[in-house]
């Protein structure tokens, strides 16, 4: 027997000592625990009944002896009447019942670090070295529901005639508990789906049989680790969800089972963490309410030295009072930023500015500080203080703007006299509005007052505003900068899980984990106007409204609801691929060939890229695809781009087209991305920012200045570009197509010789394009496609396409159009030119067909329902429609 672990078989070193599982698990122990709990419940019910009887006896005696009026006198309570004895006995029993319920009604102990401030934890941890060799039994810290789970695992192993309780038995018991039901609901896993596969694993978990059942070493390790996990998360007790996490994490069979059902391990862990987070928030709320009762409910501090602040109260909100009354939500995560904020205040520089993009959680950090001030888990410099947020726009705009400085000085005078106020200045850049007077004076005034050190200020601003209005001014030197970066994926999921309860309550719906994970993923990838986690929360709020209106209350918000909201906001198809869209993608080559004749290689490459993008098999940090189309004019380079825009993006106009011949000098870079400080942005960046899912067509790319081409190196490699305003524009949902006529003569000569197109492309890359494009630019393209010159047959097919378009236009006017085969062939012959592709054909059709049609229509020689026939000699004949019957 191990002396250190006391025979438990396993110990884990910790701050409390050597963690062991000391409780025995057998029929007698479980039955005794159950009976003890039932006796405790019966005993307290009996006490309550006796207490009620004594009070009832007191009232009955008063009514029967007609002493109700006498009971209001002092003599009644001192004369020794029996009914007074009944009354005091009832009061004593009530007090005893409350005492028992608070202290002795449960056997579960609180975890050692629950509810302690950081100072208390630091003092507790100082004695950790002395406790290292002590045996610490973790079993008393398990909640009643956790004990029920352990008991069910023991019963399961016993019924299966196993000699040991294994982690698989423990997992099965956890999944069958109330907590397990909530888990499967949030995960979206039907129990019937899991039941049979889990039963197979449970039955195969161990072999042999025994009359006695004991806890295996792996189970004891899981139970001890569950305690350590709960302590790390500052839980009140060890609950079933900690058991679930430890057994799932230690058993690869369970992980493989859920993964095979379509639920990856990280999703399972996230859902379990979600349940634990909700439980912990409830525990923390109970603790916070108890601590808030000790916080003064007025502006007065405990030393009674504070003063009233009527002007400040007019333009501000007392955040500590709001926190005390339960109006502010707890802060999730941001431990590093909060520690940095408090460290800056403690260091002596005192005042701080939180710098982060909108939506990163600057306000949440300030509100989290207010809650910590209510709990008094703060440095001494913040003890017994008020956190007051000033409404700066109201302060500046109220009354005469010229008197804004006087109002600020009057408020700071009140802050100075009160002595217990910390100011919060959201949007502190509004004090330094960039003018030579007015708001700028407020920034300088605040900077001067901060130098005097009689108050602490916490400002918030964005990186752009900080750089432009604060950093290089005296105010910037007085404020310690704390960067609030955008949250990562997992942190954002945790915040959304924590705040989902309020959204569910407001809209009477429920979130599945898939909806939360989808909101964070899609918002982070496609919505760029705000930062995580706020933009994901916005998506969840709208998705909850959508789900409630579509399916009624008490429905689940699904991942498809979230995808629909993101689609509406970004115009990017992010929903699951439906049957119609799937068919369109699979047949994309045929759809493109309805407008583009020949050029099979180019059409195939484009279609494959779109299928990869829609199946989410591409790199997420680059555009959907980067293509360079080379070839003579008129062979279909631009037409293929228009065809893709029409077929997949909705219309020919769903593209950003830039004629690169307009960007031949270096100064035109400002036209593309905007001049520094110009809030209008540039033509390129604004077009993509407003429509991120589009085709970017760069016509005649070889004519652009080299500095312009350098811009697209970053676009093609990183999928982003910073405009003149400082905004990062996302290009990851763009199909970038650059066209060029470079090497046209070489291509035409080699095609006449019958040279293979791959050899033509290789020669172009190695010789013809070297003097035009830099190698690093060409290497950024996913594919460089050489378009072949059109043949006579190609031009004939294009002629039919153009004639059919004429028929469609006339059909809109109520007229019919028909062309004879020989007429179309003659048009194709007249319009065929190997050097210029299909462009001469368009001119021929305009001269020989469109001009005649215009004359007919203007002379009113053709009416609705008439048929116009293009004859072999390229003249038009009108077939008059018969009169209506």
Overview of this structure, please?
The protein is an alpha/beta fold. It is built from 39 helices and 23 strands. The radius of gyration is 38 Å and the shape is elongated. The chain starts with 11 loop residues before the first strand and ends in a 6-residue tail after the last strand. The model is unreliable at 434-440 (pLDDT under 50).
Q: Nutshell version of this structure?
A:
The chain is an alpha/beta fold and 885 residues long. It contains 39 helices and 23 strands.
Number of beta strands: 23
* Low-confidence blocks of residues: 434-440
Strand order of the largest sheet: 6-8-9-10-7-11
Mean pLDDT: 85
Number of helices: 39
Strand percentage: 5-15%
- Cα shape: elongated
Distance between the termini: 110 Å
Q: How would a textbook summarize the main sheet?
A: 6 strands, mixed
Please identify the structural class as seen in this structure.
Answer: alpha/beta
What's the arrangement of secondary structure elements?
Blueprint: E1 12-14, E2 17-20, H1 27-64, H2 74-78, H3 82-104, H4 118-125, H5 128-131, E3 135-137, H6 144-159, E4 164-165, H7 167-175, H8 178-187, H9 191-203, E5 214-215, H10 217-232, H11 240-250, H12 252-260, H13 265-292, H14 310-314, E6 316-318, H15 319-324, H16 335-346, E7 352-355, H17 362-375, E8 386-390, H18 392-397, H19 404-418, E9 421-426, H20 439-452, E10 456-461, H21 463-470, H22 474-478, E11 480-483, H23 489-507, E12 510-511, H24 513-526, H25 534-551, E13 556-557, H26 559-570, H27 579-586, H28 588-593, H29 600-614, E14 625-630, H30 637-647, E15 655-659, H31 669-673, H32 683-690, E16 694-699, H33 706-718, E17 720-722, E18 728-730, E19 734-740, H34 744-753, H35 757-768, H36 775-778, E20 783-786, H37 792-812, E21 816-819, H38 821-831, H39 839-858, E22 867-870, E23 876-879
Parallel strand pairs: 2-3, 4-5, 7-10, 7-11, 8-9, 9-10, 12-13, 14-19, 14-20, 15-16, 16-19, 21-22
Antiparallel strand pairs: 1-2, 6-8, 17-18, 22-23
